[in-house]
Design a protein that fits this description.
The protein is mostly helical. The protein has 19 helices and no strands. Helix 5 packs across helix 16.
């Protein structure tokens, strides 16, 4: 007796988006009336869609708080790894910041959300909008929490992210003394991961209702915006790899990038098909071995990168924030842009390298500047497709940075790196 293969959540979400688009397109052709507008669009679709978003918002604070503490408490354990740990962490964090800014800049230039009118909103009540001064000092001061309990209650995400990061670093520094607290946080993180997973199972229904409502409200233009968003995002992934990773190999690792690209292409199908950095870890380790990087370097940098180094995710979050701003005609301020960069950077650090979780961290970014979360209906569905390219970039960044650190430590064997006769065994 053969068992049927279980359909993935990503596939279900795509189906939900597709059916929502189809139903929305049908409803657009129906004249406005009580059944269409009051009962379906503003009744059933509004209730289910908003309920789904509310449940997602419910998970943001506890999940991000726990995941960042767990991630940072593990990722910043530089006492054991000394110089290597410091180098790789610096590379990961710097390029995470660069990737976030790159995504924002790409969104501003490419304008993926232009041409679609989703209405306008007021950000007067948001913390980001309250910071009227564009002084860099004032922007940074407004990001520091004076009362973390008040910040947790109000959902000031940038405060939560910074505080959780600090706690994680401190736990890693004091080690055994903090073990009871770390055990509690680890357990809480496991619980919240499961809660997020349960809520995410509602995604197909939620995006179906939200997408149908969006199409009726915004018309067919939203379909073109969806396609434009996906194309722009993938383009930024490819461009980042070309203008950042290739020069990093050339001048950082001091090697010809061509052998790396040829060898990486042998395992790229793994992150592409699984959309998971964690699942790709053993394959990335085999890749680094074939690149001539010693195992004592790669065995630390690769697992760490699967947690900390999410350049593709950072690009996606930066560009998506611009996409939402354009959809709703939001005028960005300097403080909002800085907040997005910091939140996108820190929000990806410590998030598990598995499918779907990036959507929760994206909610963190959008919430930090008071952006409407309704646009998540468009993004969730298409993310399953773009996530394949995003994960490839995430995994590529891990091995590229590993080559750079390997070179700096004298642990990169050039003879092995340039040897193209040996195929990588991924069995």
């Amino acid at each position: 007796m053969t068992s049927k293969k279980k359909m993935s959540l990503g596939t279900k979400s795509l189906i939900g988006v597709g059916l929502g688009l189809l139903l929305g397109a049908v409803l657009v052709q129906i004249p406005p009336g009580m059944i269409r507008d009051e009962f379906l669009v503003n009744g059933v679709f509004e209730f289910i869609g908003k309920a789904y978003l509310t449940l997602l918002k419910m998970t943001i604070i506890p999940f991000v708080f726990c995941s960042l503490i767990v991630g940072m408490s593990s990722a910043t354990d530089v006492k054991q790894v000394g110089r290597v740990g410091s180098k790789i962490l610096m590379l990961y964090v710097v390029f995470e910041i660069v990737a976030s800014a790159f995504g924002i800049l790409g969104g501003i230039i490419l304008q993926p959300g232009s041409g679609v009118d989703m209405g306008t909103i007021s950000l007067e009540e948001t913390a980001a909008a309250k910071a009227t001064s564009i002084s860099f000092v004032n922007v940074l001061l407004n990001m520091l929490p004076s009362n973390i309990f008040a910040s947790l209650a109000k959902g000031d995400m940038i405060h939560v992210v910074l505080f959780a990061t600090l706690i994680g670093v401190v736990i890693s520094l004091i080690q055994e003394k903090a073990k009871p607290v770390k055990d509690v946080v680890d357990s809480s993180y496991a619980i919240m991961t499961k809660v997020v997973d349960i809520v995410m199972q509602l995604t197909p229904i939620g995006v179906f209702c939200l997408m149908a409502k969006t199409v009726v409200t915004a018309g067919y233009a939203v379909i073109f915006a969806l396609a434009k968003y996906a194309v722009c995002e993938i383009f930024l992934f490819v461009l980042f790899g070309i203008i950042v990773y290739i020069p990093l190999l050339k001048f950082g690792a001091k090697v010809n990038p061509i052998p790396y690209l040829r060898k990486f292409s042998q395992m790229a199908i793994i992150p592409f098909s699984t959309t998971s950095s964690n699942i790709s870890i053993p394959y990335s380790l085999k890749l680094c071995d074939n690149l001539g990087v010693s195992n004592k370097i790669a065995s630390f940098t690769i697992p760490l990168g699967a947690t900390v180094n999410m350049d593709g995710s950072a690009i996606m979050q930066g560009m998506t924030a611009m996409f939402v701003a354009q959809l709703y005609g939001i005028e960005l301020t300097a403080s909002m842009i800085i907040t997005i960069v910091i939140t996108a950077t820190l929000g990806t650090i410590g998030s598990p390298g598995m499918p779907g979780v990036v959507m929760v961290t994206l909610l963190t970014v959008l919430s930090s500047v008071g952006f409407p979360l309704d646009a998540i209906a468009i993004i969730v569905g298409i993310d399953r497709f773009t996530d394949m390219f995003k994960t490839v970039l995430n995994v590529m960044g891990d091995s590229v940075c590993t080559c750079v650190v390997g070179r700096s430590e004298g642990e990169l064997n050039e003879a092995v790196y340039y040897d193209m006769s040996k195929k990588i065994d991924f069995n």
